C-alpha cells in the first residue's frame, strides 16, 4: 500500500484551526424559538459565543452603542464570537424582555423551546451557545467583529454549513432521541465552518480576518501559534514571512494589532497557563517548554501577564477544581 501525504497550508497546518483549537469550544445550550409579532428579547453579555439562525421570517438585531439595527432574514446566520449583549425583535425599536426571564438558568447541555404568541407574522430561529476557554483566547480572536452576519449566498459557499443548518432546523423540530446532543455538537460545527466562510468572504471587513488570510503574516502567525517554544526574533519571524524586518513589523502590527514580540509572549503565556492547569510539569522546567531560556525571566513575564507567579496560579486553579 502506498500512502500519499500532501500539505494543504503553510507549514502543513491550519491557522484558523490553530487559533480555535485551544478555545475548546463546546456547545452548552441550544434552543428553538417560534415567535409571533410583536416580540422583543434582550440578552446580556455572555461568556459564550452566541449563534442565531433564522429558519423562517425575519428579525432585527440591535446592539448597544447606537449602531444601525441589522435585519436578519430567512436563511441568514448571525454570530457573536464573544457573546456581546444584543436585542432581537420583530422590528427595530420594539420594547424587549430579558431573555433570562423566559429561559432562566439554561444549564450546560440544555436544549429548550421558546414560544411567544402574538397576532403578527411568525419567525422561527435556532439559537446556540458555545462555551470557550477565556484563558486561551488569542488577540486575533478578540479582534473579530462583535457580530458576523452571513447571508444565504455566503452560507451556500460551504455546502456542509448550509446542510448542517438545514438538518438542525429539521432535527430540533421532530424531537428524535438524542436530538438535543446532536444540536449541541452541530452548533460547534456551524461555528467553525461559518468562521471559515467569513475568512474568505468578509476578510476585508476586519483586521483579524485580514491577518488570518494574509499569506505572509499568516505564515508568521502559524509559526508563533504552533512553534512558540523556538527562539524567535523579529528577524527570524520576518524571514518566515519572506519580508524585510521593517515591512514585516509594520504589517504585523497593522493587521494583528500588536507587535510580533508581544504576540509571541502572549502565546507563550497562554501555553504556560494551560500547562500549569492541565499538567504536572515541574515549575523548574516550565520556562523551557514555552521558549524561555531563563527561569527568572519567565517568572517575571508570567507575573506581569497574570498578576501572580506561576506557582500561585497553579494552586489557585487546583483549588478551583
TrEMBL record:
Positions of transmembrane segments: none
Keywords: DNA-binding, Transcription, Transcription regulation
A Pfam family matched in the record: Cupin_6
Record flagged with keyword Membrane: no
Listed InterPro entries: AraC_lig (IPR032783), AraC_XylS_family_regulators (IPR050204), Homeodomain-like_sf (IPR009057), HTH_AraC (IPR018060)
GO MF terms, alphabetically ordered: DNA-binding transcription factor activity; sequence-specific DNA binding
Superkingdom of source: Bacteria
Domain HTH araC/xylS-type: 218-316
Record PANTHER family: ARAC FAMILY TRANSCRIPTIONAL REGULATOR, HTH-TYPE TRANSCRIPTIONAL ACTIVATOR RHAS-RELATED
Name of protein: AraC-like DNA-binding protein
The organism of origin for this protein: Actinomadura viridis
Species lineage: Bacteria, Bacillati, Actinomycetota, Actinomycetes, Streptosporangiales
Amino acid at each position: 500500500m502506498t500512502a500519499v501525504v500532501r500539505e494543504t497550508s503553510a507549514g502543513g497546518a491550519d491557522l484558523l484551526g490553530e487559533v480555535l483549537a485551544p478555545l475548546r469550544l463546546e456547545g452548552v445550550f441550544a434552543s428553538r424559538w417560534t415567535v409571533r409579532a410583536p416580540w422583543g428579547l434582550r440578552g446580556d453579555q455572555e461568556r459564550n459565543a452566541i449563534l442565531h439562525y433564522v429558519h423562517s421570517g425575519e428579525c432585527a438585531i440591535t446592539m448597544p452603542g447606537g449602531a444601525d439595527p441589522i435585519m436578519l432574514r430567512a436563511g441568514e446566520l448571525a454570530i457573536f464570537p464573544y457573546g456581546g449583549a444584543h436585542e432581537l425583535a420583530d422590528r427595530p425599536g420594539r420594547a424587549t424582555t430579558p431573555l433570562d426571564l423566559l429561559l432562566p438558568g439554561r444549564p450546560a447541555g440544555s436544549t429548550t423551546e421558546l414560544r411567544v404568541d402574538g397576532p403578527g407574522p411568525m419567525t422561527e430561529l435556532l439559537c446556540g451557545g458555545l462555551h470557550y476557554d477565556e484563558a486561551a483566547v488569542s488577540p486575533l480572536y478578540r479582534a473579530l467583529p462583535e457580530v458576523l452576519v452571513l447571508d444565504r449566498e455566503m452560507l451556500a459557499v460551504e455546502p456542509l454549513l448550509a446542510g448542517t443548518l438545514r438538518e438542525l432546523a429539521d432535527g430540533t423540530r421532530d424531537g428524535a432521541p438524542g436530538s438535543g446532543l446532536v444540536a449541541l455538537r452541530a452548533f460547534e460545527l456551524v461555528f467553525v465552518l461559518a468562521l471559515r466562510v467569513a475568512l474568505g468572504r468578509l476578510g476585508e471587513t476586519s483586521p483579524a480576518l485580514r491577518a488570518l488570510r494574509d499569506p505572509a503574516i499568516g505564515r508568521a502567525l502559524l509559526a508563533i501559534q504552533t512553534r512558540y517554544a523556538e527562539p524567535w526574533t523579529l528577524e527570524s519571524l520576518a524571514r518566515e514571512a519572506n519580508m524585510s524586518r521593517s515591512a514585516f513589523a509594520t504589517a504585523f502590527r497593522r493587521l494583528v494589532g500588536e507587535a510580533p514580540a508581544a504576540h509571541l509572549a502572549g502565546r507563550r503565556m497562554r501555553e504556560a497557563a494551560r500547562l500549569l492547569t492541565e499538567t504536572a510539569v515541574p515549575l523548574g522546567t516550565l520556562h523551557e517548554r514555552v521558549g524561555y531560556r531563563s527561569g527568572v525571566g519567565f517568572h517575571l513575564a508570567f507575573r506581569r501577564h497574570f498578576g501572580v507567579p506561576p506557582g500561585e496560579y497553579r494552586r489557585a486553579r487546583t483549588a478551583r477544581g
